[in-house]
Amino acid sequence: MTAATAVDERLAPASLLRRLLARPELGAVVGAVAVFVFFSIVAPTFLQASSLSTILYSASTIGIMAVPVALLMIGGEFDLSAGVMVTTSALVSSMFSYQMTANVWVGVGVSLLVTLAIGFFNGFMLTRTKLPSFIITLGTFLMLTGLNLGFTKLISGTVSTKSIADMEGFPSARALFASKWEIGSVTLQITVLWWLALVAVATWILLRTRAGNWIFAVGGGADAARAVGVPVVKTRIGLYMGVALCAWISGQHILFSFDVVQSGEGVGNEFLYIIAAVIGGCLMTGGYGSAIGSAVGAFIFGMTSNGIVYAQWNPDWFKFFLGAMLLLATLLNAWVRKRAEASK
Fold first, then answer.
1. Is the pTM of this model over 0.70?
2. What is the DSSP string of 2-25?
3. How far is the C-alpha of 148 from the C-alpha of 163, rounded, in Å?
4. Burial of 130: CB neighbours in 10 Å, binned 0-12, 13-18, 19+
């Protein structure tokens, strides 16, 4: 055996192109550049600073939830109750504060416990029953939809909650969940900071911790992961509770932005979170993806949803563009993966 062949090929330095092709978010970055250039040409107001702040806010409201949904998809599972869970979190905070206490922070704390319990329920039922996550979370979605409407009408007499804007603790809660700053002609919403912080934490978990290895292992094959000692049950429950935690953050933002909450909000948003994760490079089959990719996917969503308005197109076409982007992103990601595997 020669000295050259004795060197482990896994330790050989990889080229820049090879490292780029191995990144899950490469396809999303290419797509983001294409969308940015396209709307820069067709919509003259797209490049204005005020437009950028609107795009970032729109992207952050989707991106906060796309981060944990991406981690869940890397772990091989889905959560169809994520959108409605956001509304449930806001409703619990509002109604508990209004009916039971004079300080909104008590309601916010109770809402956190309730939302985490919903996430634990999803993960526990999934691991106990062995049913597909589609069935488990679809059941949770329907139950929460009914509970949101039923309890809101039972307590408030209408489909929306009472205003809690004059209650103690509201200003400090609004500062944490719904504040904004004017920087010249740009308005920076605090959701953008929440979004970036969550992306950073999720990336650190995936790439620098043992829990990140567990998530990839469970998504790649639960039985094989279990055979080598990965705590599959704890990992899955933790992922669902991560979705619940971010749903709580999003729900508090909605409540403290508008003072009241409509019980029917959130239905259908779970698909937007999944679309952002898929556009960002997460595979539907699990075991592959990144938190940064989900952020790029959410940014594409923000550019598209607002770019259509700036271009003065009929918004009725928005869902068509969203569906086309999902299809193109999936095809592009598949092509990038094949190129990456072929270059090994």
1. yes
2. -HHHHS-GGGSPPPHHHHHHT-TT
3. 17
4. exposed
